Every structure is written in structure tokens, then in C-alpha cells.
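Build the 3D complex.
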Amino acid sequence: MVNIKIDDIEVQVPEDTPILKAAEKAGIWIPTMCYNDLIEPYGVCRLCSVEVVRGKRSRVVTSCNYPVREGISVRTNSEKIKWLRKVIMELMVSRWPNVKVVREMAEKLGVEKPRFESLEKDESPDACILCGLCVNVCRDLVGASILGFAYRGIKREVVLPFDEKTDKCIVCGACTHVCPTGHVKMVIEDYKGKKPEFSLGPKTAIYVPSMQAVPRVPVIDPNSCIHFKTGGCETCAKVCEPKAINYDMKDEIVELDVGQILVATGYDIFDASQMAQYGYGRYDNVYSSLEFEMMLNSTGPTGGKVLTKDGKEPRSVGIIHCIGSRDTNYHPYCSRVCCMYALKFAHLVHDRTNAAIYQFYIDMRAFGKGYEEFYSRLLDEGINMIRGKAAEVVEAPTVNGQEGNLLIRCEDTLIGKFREIPVDMVILCNAIEPKRDSDTVRRLFSISKSPDGFFLERHPKLDPTSTTTDGVYIAGCAQGPKDIPDTVAQASSAAARILTLISKGEVEIDPIRAMVMDEYCSGCRICNNLCPYGAIEYIEDKKISHVNEALCKGCGTCVAACPSSAMTGQGFTDAQILSELEGLMI
Amino acid sequence: MSFEPKIIGFLCNWCSYSGADLAGVSRIKSAPNVRVIRTMCSGRVDPTFILKAFQLGADGVVVMGCHPGDCHYQEGNYKTMRRIPFLKRIIKDFGIEQERLRLEWVSASEGDIYAKVVNEFTEEIRKLGPIKHPSCKVKLEKVLGG
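Done.
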């Protein structure tokens, strides 16, 4: 720690602190236009110049990169400094008269009209003031070193390599973020060269997945994080006070011993781009239900506003039901939740915009408590209900002289007419599908699936939460499409079943087990390798096989294979099955 | 009176037996000719049972188990998968048509498939006619006794 004096205020700061920071601590403002906490000071704007007095000598230095030393005193407001700042500001204003940050600073420093006339006068409001922040952030923080200065003196400017578009830029946006004038702009183009106004993905590489996330902590997307591209940046780690950022964290496999398992692995949504006729993935304003849900979210990309891709409020919105469900080409089953969320969408669009809303449905299934009432309410709100699945969504270049519309073609089966309805936005109600990895998961727990691919319960009516594997329960959309109340009911039931077993303290098992009749066993060991559970062991000194009853599950594979009938399956002995046979053949 | 085949079905408890149950619960009609014996796993079906069924006058035997990979006991149905083709060769030597023995995979959710298999198999056996006694019976008795 060193003691210094700034404008007669004494401060104690660690050695090597720049004067600018020390002054900040003392509560003294020093003007600067090229300083950023995250980047090494560059000292190019010269505005932060101060007078350092050591003994009888005084020197003018840039405070942003001048480290403090014991005993120095600093003058930030002397006549000399005031005059210096004024001249610098006059030079800046004369060159960039319309840049907001320059004008604001000039006002603060009392500069009204510059005495100079610049040869390189640039009157645009977003002119580059050559602060070098973008160049430095790209080189020092990001580590990409794409931006650089070219030419000298008054010709100096910031350029990309060879002044051309480059694919070496990692498009992190750090330069646009630090640019004080807005001169550095990022242009995002999609594959068609179009510029989208917003994307539905996360905006930054570190983000909280959703405001409802549990635990509510941010995650880093390694695909867009600068650190994982160049090894640089680490800005989030620098600003995180509890030092919670860890770049070395990896996915790991954790092994736990558990007695019972509740499989609630959820669902995937149907990929609507398979149904090319609805234009999902081809047209900008065709959304899947989840994407639209995200748009409605007040913490989402549009802040909860319903907007088309070009940022306008839609004049009409079409909601198409049963995309992939109730369709023999894809999924024959009904996804159950779509009718109700489609109504919710309609309600919210009605609430937030003046758009006309069209619902294209096959049948309305308002099956739950209070659902039919909600449906009636929506009808009163003036939603247009069209009975008939939409045939296709096409681009209609001009409708009534307005450009950029989509056109939904459909048959209205209630009036028996073919209709074409122009809309600005289409929302598809994607089917609920079994998780893509559900087969792997199901084999892991040895549970079966229904023909539709969802996990199979032990009994469709009497035991809808347990499976044929003892101790494995299923709940939610992993078992079949269902809405939140149904999922909560099923999961609670499964949890209660699990708790019952825990409180009981012991597990009842079926008495069906294999058993070796020692006197018949020849010790051939055929059974030993057949057992998938390793329940059969060979007793060396007796030269016979023995079944470990705790491991045996009673499948009887070994019983069927025993050449000397020494193995019997309790409950399913040879004698029992043979007499069953005889009984059946009478 | 027309010929009504007697068919014995060995059904595994977890898939096919549940599938048969589902067929019943779902009110799917299936031929009443198949008389079902439940085993815990299709792997429990001792080849002797099948021969015994033929000896006792069964016109056909169908063994049903879980789809490969879905066995409740992990790999019991793989054992069956290997045993049945062997047995098919053996029954030929007894003078029994190979078509009278069938192995089918029916999962617990396939009530309709259970009914389809049963109906198809019954029709096939009906076409084949009654099992040819006593020639094969004598031979079987020699092997199995009484």
C-alpha cells in the first residue's frame, strides 16, 4: 500500500494502481474517452492527463496508465490541466462535431466553439473517434486480433484485415459493445443475406436458461463463448465477485446407489420442418409453439411483445393445430395439450396486439376442468375459428397492396368452402413426441413402450404409474402426452408409491425363484452361463450348482436348460406346467 | 362338425401375456383355439413342454415372448430364439409339420398384434388339419414316456 495525495485529498491504494483508479477512490472525477476497466489502459485520448508533483518538479502524465508511487501528489484540476483538456476537446469537437460522446464531454469541460478547423472533419453522428477500444478489446481480451489501425496521422483509421469482410472474425460482438460512438456495427446475415431483427436463441454466451430455471444460475454456451474459441476474454470471471465462474467444468458421470427410480424424462416436440407444406424453417414468420412461447415470455428476446421478424406488430396471426399429431403419416395420437395452449396463445395475442386471430382446428378438445369455459370466453373475444386442418402456408408477395404476407390455404369444413387467409405470422402446434433417446432409456430400466413410443405402464387403468420392473415408476409426458395437472397428479402418485416402500422398510418380492435339487445336479454347469443376473454359482467342493435366491429373478431360463431336471422353478415347476398342459388338452 | 384346432400358447408373463390381457381389455376378438400357459419368461419354455403338447394331441404350439432387446430378464428371449429353430428341425423327424410350431414376438402394448397372430395361426392350422396321429404319437411316447 502506498499513500498519495490527489488534489490535497490523501488516499491509500495498492502499489501500481493507476492514478485514475486512485482518484476514483478519492471521489475525484477525471475525464477520459478511451478507458475501459476490462482492457489495459491505452492512453490515447490524453483527456485524463494530470500533473504529477514529486518534490519541486511537476510533470504532465496520462492518469489511466501512470502507476502511483509513495509520496507523489497529483493535481487534476490545475490551470495547466484545464487548459490542456480544453485544447484536446476543441480538437476533438472540430473533427467530430456531431458525435454524442464528444459533445457531451465538451459540454462537461465547458468547450462551446472550437477555435480550429479540421482537415478531416467528419460530421456523421457515429464517426470513429480513434479511441482504440475495439482494437484493444479484440487483441487483448478476445484474442482474435481482427481489428487494427491503418495509416498514420490524420489518415488513421480502424480496419479489418485488407479492409475486407473476413471469416476469421468470431463474431463475438465485443468491439460493438465497447465502441463509444456506435461506429463499429455488427451485421448479422442469415444464409439468404437477410438481416434478422432478433433471434430466438440466447443473446450472450453466458445466460440464465430461463428465469424459472432451477437452480437459477447462468450457464456458458461453449459454442459461442469467446474463451472457448481463443482462450481469451474471461470477462465474466473478472467481474464475478464470488469467483463462481469455472471454465474447466466438464460433464461428469455420477454413480448413485438408489432403491427406486422415477423416470420422468419428458418429451420432444415434433420437428415441423418435416411437413414442408407449412413452411417451418423456410419462412421467417412461421414459429413452432415453443418458439412462440419464448417470444411471449417477458424475459424473452422481444420482451414479451408479439413481433414479426422485421420487428412489426402482426396484423393477423394464424394458429394451426395438430402439426404431426392426429395424422396417420406421423403420429396417430392426440397430443392433448395443443388445443388449450393454442387458445392461450390466441388470448395473449389478442391481449397484446390488435391482430386478427385465426385458429385452424380439426376438433376442439377442451377436456379439463375449466377448459370449456376458457374456450367459450375466447369465442366471445372474437377469435376466428376455422374447422379444417390448414393445407399449406405459402408466401403471398402482395395482398391488398401490402407486402410480405403469408397465405394459409385451407378448407373450412363448416361452410364447405375453400379459403385463403392472409396472415403475418403462423404458429404451429407441434405434436408431443417420445424423447429421441427413449429407446436407450427404456432398455436401461427394462421397461416397455406403447406402439406410440411412450413408456408403458404396468396396467393402463389399474396401475398407470408403475412399470413391469419393480421399483421403476414413470410419470409425465414420458408415459404419454399430458398437461400439467395430469402430470402433477401422476408424479405425486408415483412419489407416494415410492414413499410407501421407503416407509415400509422392506421390499416384498415374488416367491418365484429357481432352485437346485442337489441330489439330481450333475454339476454340468450349463446353467451357470445362462443366468443374466449371475445368480447361479458353482460350489467346487460339492461339485454342484447353487442358486443365490437374492439375485435370482425367477425367469426360468436355467430350468428349461437343465439336462437332468435338477433345476426347478418355484411356482412354475415342470410338473405344474405339464399338468396344466394335460388339463388344457382334455 | 368342422375341425377346431387345439393350440397351446406359451406366453411370457411380461410382454405377451400382458399383450393378450390387453387384447381382452380392448375387446379385440381373437380365436378361442389358443389355450394359454403363462411362463415367467419365454426362456422358461422347455422344449419338452412343446413335444409333450404335440404328444397330448395339440394341433399347434405358439411361443410368444418380448421383442428382442425388450426381455424383462434381459436375455431370456434370445435363448428361446435359438431353441425354437432347433426344435423345428426335431419335430420334422417326428412327422410333425414345421408350421405347427411358431415363435412370435408380442409386446405388452400389442393387443392387436396378439389377436392377429392368434387368428392367423389358427387359420393356418385349420388348413393343415389335425395332427397326424398315431404315427408321431408313438414316436413321441418313445422319447417322452407314457
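The longest helix of chain B spans residues 76-93.
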